[in-house]
Each structure stands twice: as C-alpha cells, then as structure tokens.
Amino acid sequence: MKTTDKITTRINDQLIVIEGDKAFMPLGNFLRNEELLTGTKIVCAEGDCGACTVLIAKDVGADGKLSFKAVNSCILPLYLIDGAQVVTVEGIGKQVGMNIELHEVQEKMIDCNGAQCGYCTPGFICAMAGMAEKFKSENKTITEKNAKNYLTGNLCRCTGYGPIVDAMTSVNLDKTQLLKDRYHSADWISEMKNIKSTSVEMKFSDKSIFLPAKLSEALSAKAADGDIRLVAGSTDIGVVVNKGKLSTPKTMALYHIDELRKISHDDKFITVGATVTLTEFEDYIEAYFPEMAKMLHIFASPQIKNQATLIGNVVNASPIADTIPFLMVSDAVVELQNSKGSRDIVLKDFYVGYKKLNMDTSEIVTRIKIPVIAPNEVTRLYKVSMRKDLDISAVTFAARVVIDGKKMTSVRLALGGVAATVARLNDIETKLTGQDFSVKAFEEAAETLDQYIKPLSDLRASSAYRMLVSKNYFKKFAKEISLEIGGGK
C-alpha cells in the first residue's frame, strides 16, 4: 500500500503539511497557535457555542468543485482533515492588493449592525458563508426560518439574534461570490484525490494514527491490534479528550475509504456507510423517513451534523442517543466486518449492556441497513429534553406500526433513557399485535410499563418523571394516529 507519515491539507490559500504528534492537536488550536489565524476563537471547547466555526471541504460536489460545510474546529483533530481544504474567517473576504474585499455576508453584518464585541462574530460569518454556499448552489431563497436553523450552532452573547438574522436574510445571493468558485483549482482537486488514495501511518513512542485508504487495510490493522480506537467525526470523543477525561493513543479513522462514504437504497433497505455524516443522512432520508429527518432537524447544530456520523452515534451506544430508537424499531441491521469475513446483526441484539456491544475487538461496523417503510405503516418519534433544539434527551420514544384495515399486524416500540440501553418493548409488542388499533389499547399498554422498565433518576430527570413521560408518549402516539387514520377510541 502507498503510505505517508504526514497530514496534508490546505488552509485558505496555503498548503500545510503536518508532521509528528501535532496531528492530534485540535484544528482550532492549530489555527490560532501555529498559523496565527486568531480570528477563530476557542471558548467552550465542546462544539456548542460556534465561536470556533470554520468551513471545510473534504469532497467535491456534482459540479466538480469543492463542497464547503461549517464545522466546529475546537473538537476536530488535525488527523481528520487530511486531503481537505479549510477556510477560516480570514479567508472569507478576498485579498485585493493591500485591501480586503468583504464577502456579502460580512457586508450585511455591518449594514445590519450584527456585530458588537466581535468574539462570536467570526464563527457567525463562517456559518453564514456556509449557508450562502448551499443556498446559492441549490438556487434557493434564504428565509428567516432557514437563517435561524442554520445559525443554531452559534451563540451570541451581546448583540442578540435579531440583527444577525436580519443580516442573513438580507444577503443578496446574486452578488455573492461562492468560495467554491474562488478557491477552485483543478490541480488541488487532483492532489486531494491523490492524498486520499494514500494511507497515512504515523507512529510515535506511545501514540499512533492510521488513516487507511482501503477497507482491507483497516481490517488487517484491527485484527493485529484490537485496542485501536476508531474515530469518526470526533463530535463526542473530541469533547471528552479536550476535557482531559480520555486519550486516544492508538487512533484509526476511515474517511479515506470510498466505499464507506456511500448511502444507497433498494426496495428493501436504505444502506448507510460508516462515514456518512448526519447531514448527508438527513438530506437523503427526507423522502423515505420524514419522521426521522424531522428528529434530526433538532438533533444537533449544522456544524455537528456536518461532521458526526450515523454509525458513530450507533456505536457510541448511549441509552439516550436520538437515532437509536428509530433504528431499533426499524429492525435495522448492523454489518460487522473483520479480516475473516462479515456478519449481520439486528440492532436490538447489538447492545448487551450499558455501552457494551455484541462485537469482537477485531470487528469494524461498516454499514447499517434500515428497512424501508412498509405499506400502511405509521411511524412516530418523540423526545423530551430541557429545550426543544440541540439538547440531550431525558426520554425518547419510537414506534413503527403496520395497520391493515383496523388490525395491527406489526408493532415495534422502543424507549430511550429508561434503561442501560435503548429498550425494545417486546412483550407489549406481542400483546398489541393482532389487536384492532385503538387509543384504549395503548392506554392499557402504558399502564403495564412499570413491569418492563425501571428508569433511574439523574440530573436530567427523576425516575417518576421518566415513567410518566413514557406512559404519556404511548397515549400521545395512539391519539395522533387515531386522528390520522380515523381509528377507534
């Protein structure tokens, strides 16, 4: 295999080569301390406030040009930007002689008085520029709702969001020069492909980084050392590492492996590769699983979803993960591979305890296959949290029920936040299957929940609250579907 021991990237107009264990450094720290690009701010170091937002292009779009997306640089280690191009706030405006020609979003922030202290402003500018890239490329108009959605990952401490939203909705996309046009270089895109086709292997006395270009190389590495930690988007693990609670001395990332970047469907399954981001998943499933797309819409900020992966959320195995309940009631199939072969396992059998998975240390989760919606099937997903958007769930609920006439021929139910893993309610499913759909049937089922779940109390919710919410979600589901299909009482 072709290998190198360096990370190669572009930051604005400069080609950057990163050597040694500096590759573990968060991008935001590197920008500020090594490249002296201090427009990027580090505040929370958790990917929450957006002050560290930059734009990154790891791939090219259908037009053959770079596809820039906003990400949080504070939790993004440098080894995850090999073969990518980064644009910081310093690169948003265009250098013209000794002057800077401001980007349209920068002009509008000035016109609308959207900036005060300037600490969070660079992050807003990058997020806004990312939005302009997408909306102009797709020939869409920016509405107030769009602007608010795209700025959910940026925290303003003094101006207030009104002027900032006004600035974004005032952007004239016809006057906006896209970064993908300004930074377009056929030579660099060719070099990007070459970089991604070369595996990166960096070894130090007590650390290592491996970025395989082929799946076979990844499987061989995992077979040789089961302690290697796979890192996908680093949106969860990056926070823990930043806070000094975890180290990742032996690290492998799979984003150079083309076959794992794909999402596809046939008449049975939608198949999602290991490195498909949540943004890519959300966009793809809008027409197939609108209820899941709606849940993802409030799941996290654009910066997080542009980097996080679906399978990363699955393997993280949190009992309050927002994607797992839907996948659980879908009877999603996890594909596992090692150097000896592959096997499939239904998701409900994948979790064997808190953060414990039914997989060998030599195995890698390569794909997840989600059965398509059946005829006459209804789906609902609910969550309760301290706030509606971008918050960790206290309780989650998922249901996929097939109703033939009045009879429920298939019932699948799951609750998150009430046990060590997301819980499939097999006994209740069995009792409801074959019954006529009715609100009463679900109300009666709700009253038996205490036989099957024993929620704990913690900082987010008490045991009693979780039980009450779980029962209410049964009733809410039944009443919503009853109104939808004209079912019984």
From TrEMBL:
Alphabetized Pfam families for the sequence: CO_deh_flav_C, FAD_binding_5, Fer2_2
Keyword Metal-binding: yes
Coiled coil: none
InterPro entries, alphabetized: 2Fe-2S-bd, 2Fe-2S-bd_dom_sf, 2Fe-2S_ferredoxin-like_sf, 2Fe2S_fd_BS, Ald_Oxase/xanthine_DH-like, Beta-grasp_dom_sf, CO_DH_flav_C, CO_DH_flav_C_dom_sf
SMART domains, per database record: CO_deh_flav_C
The keyword Flavoprotein is assigned to this record: yes
FAD-binding PCMH-type domain segment(s): 202-375
Transmembrane segments: none
SUPFAM superfamilies xref list: 2Fe-2S ferredoxin-like, CO dehydrogenase flavoprotein C-terminal domain-like, CO dehydrogenase ISP C-domain like, FAD-binding/transporter-associated domain-like
Keywords, ordered alphabetically: FAD, Flavoprotein, Iron, Metal-binding
PANTHER family assigned: XANTHINE DEHYDROGENASE
Identification of the protein by name: FAD binding domain-containing protein
Organism of provenance: Bacteriovorax antarcticus
Taxonomic classification: Bacteria, Pseudomonadati, Bdellovibrionota, Bacteriovoracia, Bacteriovoracales
